[in-house]
Amino acid sequence: xxxxxxxxxxxxxxxSLKVYEKDPxxxxxxxxxxxxxxxxxxxxxxxDVWINSASTEEAFQGRGYGSQVVEKxxxxxxxxxxxxxxxxxxxxxxxxxxxxxTEGARLVQSCIRKGIMDKDWYFNPFQTNYDYEDNPHEENxxxxxxxxxxEEFEKMKxxxxxxxxxxxxxxxxxxxxx
Length: 178
What we know:
two-stranded parallel ribbon
């Protein structure tokens, strides 16, 4: 059985992420036949596309799969916005469904650092008056930019290094237990 697990694991690690539009508002990343990343989109009244929610299976987080899906979405739509507003601001407007979880916000921040998304695409729509035609947002982005602290960034780099050093992913043993 160990030999079979090792062979399957080896084959899956050689597979690249398959990214596709599942339906007009949902994009997914599939690895070895399993959907590991899902990003739902929201079209606002102006016809602009927003990331509504983003999730990656816990065992697959931090490996760049979410970023690959966002990259394909940006290629398809030209740009995609993300809300930096907190949950309480969205509760005041129940029709607005752009609130991102902590995981989704980190994905957006990662995409900005990688150059997949422009930092101007990540802002608080409740604090910023924007006109999509003239200026997507006001010039003051610092107050709405939710970046990682230096300590969080260093921790993230350590985790990435651990993942890289851990070798191939064993899909039958994703929690690390024997």
